[in-house]
Amino acid sequence: MGNEAIIHVVDDDLAVRQSLSFLLASDGLPVRLHQSASAFLATVEDGLTGCILTDVRMPGIDGIEFLRRLKARGFTMPVIVMTGHADVPLAVEAMKQGAIDFIEKPFNDDLLLAAVRIGLDRHQRETQHQAQSVEIAGRLKALSEREKQVLDRLVAGKANKVIAFELDISPRTVEIYRANVMTKMRAGSLSELVRFALLVENGSETTARP
């Protein structure tokens, strides 16, 4: 299915899987069914776009352990957990483990579809954000050491004269380096240049988090 967004339904109850498959398909969403978390982990590779809709109580690997294993393997697809009324504390724990939402059974069809759509939109934005960060990081690597020094000071909000003094070069030379940085980073304005630099910096911090 290429990069088409797929809704992965993970539930040990066949009737629930079939019901959700019909509901999601009727809303135009591609669906793939999994009878257990183990089945999902054994057959699905990360890097796909979509959303995971899983029961929180399942034999073998339950919803909480499923989330832990997804995180350990680097899965980035958003996860929505389904729970019975008595399992709400468990669903809250699932959200602490990375789930983006939980839906109580018996669920409202419109509410579930809305949650799935929100999950898909969120994943699309995050994927685009990550791709942009990688692209801008590539531009950053093309800068010379001096250009990087000028960029760092521009991001810090320093004026050309201050940068010239700190680097022991003329203000005119700073202007030349600044123009080179703008061209190489493909920034149309100083504000866009700063945004690009912060995007890469924040992306690096997110990657470095455990």
TrEMBL record:
PROSITE patterns: HTH_LUXR_1 (PS00622), HTH_LUXR_2 (PS50043), RESPONSE_REGULATORY (PS50110). SUPFAM superfamilies: C-terminal effector domain of the bipartite response regulators (SSF46894), CheY-like (SSF52172). The modification 4-aspartylphosphate is found at D55. Residues 136-201 form the HTH luxR-type domain. InterPro entries: CheY-like_superfamily (IPR011006), Sig_transdc_resp-reg_C-effctor (IPR016032), Sig_transdc_resp-reg_receiver (IPR001789), Tscrpt_reg_LuxR_C (IPR000792), WH-like_DNA-bd_sf (IPR036388). It comes from the Bacteria. Keywords: DNA-binding, Phosphoprotein, Transcription, Transcription regulation, Two-component regulatory system. GO terms for biological process: phosphorelay signal transduction system; regulation of DNA-templated transcription. Residues 6-120 form the Response regulatory domain. GO terms for molecular function: DNA binding. This is LuxR family two component transcriptional regulator.
